[in-house]
Amino acid sequence: MSTTLIAIGAALAVLTGIGAGIGIGIATSKATEAIARQPEASGDINKALLLGCALAEATAIYGFVIAILIILFLK
């Protein structure tokens, strides 16, 4: 398989990090706004925010792992 195609495939797999970064940024922004409006609900908002951030970050990590697997096993 061509080295160029392997590099393009790995690059596309790593692009999942961009979506995760944007998603975490938007979630943090909305959580901050929600805490400013309802400070008494900050505990619940923090729990939901951390869960969402963890799931988004897992997506980025999966993309990175797939990129490494593509590079290592499709030579």
Protein topology:
Blueprint: H1 3-14, H2 16-37, H3 42-73
Helix pairs in contact: 1-3, 2-3
Describe this protein with a few key phrases.
rod-shaped
What oligomeric state do these chains adopt? Answer: single chain
Overall geometric form: rod-shaped
Give the percentage of residues in beta strands.
under 5%
- Elements, N to C (H/E): HHH
Q: Label the structural class.
A: mainly alpha
Q: Average pLDDT across residues? A: 91
Number of strands: 0
Helix tally? 3
- Name the helicity range: over 70%
Q: Low-confidence stretches at least 5 residues in length (pLDDT < 50)?
A: none
How far apart are the first and last residues' alpha carbons, in Å? 7 Å
Radius of gyration: 17 Å
Largest sheet: none
Structure overview:
The chain has helices at residues 3-14, 16-37, 42-73. The chain has 75 residues and is mainly α. The protein contains 3 helices and no strands. It starts with a helix and ends with a helix. Helix content is 88%, strand content 0%. Helix 1 (3-14) packs antiparallel against helix 3 (42-73) and helix 2 packs antiparallel against helix 3. The model has no long low-confidence stretch (mean pLDDT 91).
Q: Can you summarize this structure?
A:
With 75 residues, the chain is mainly α.
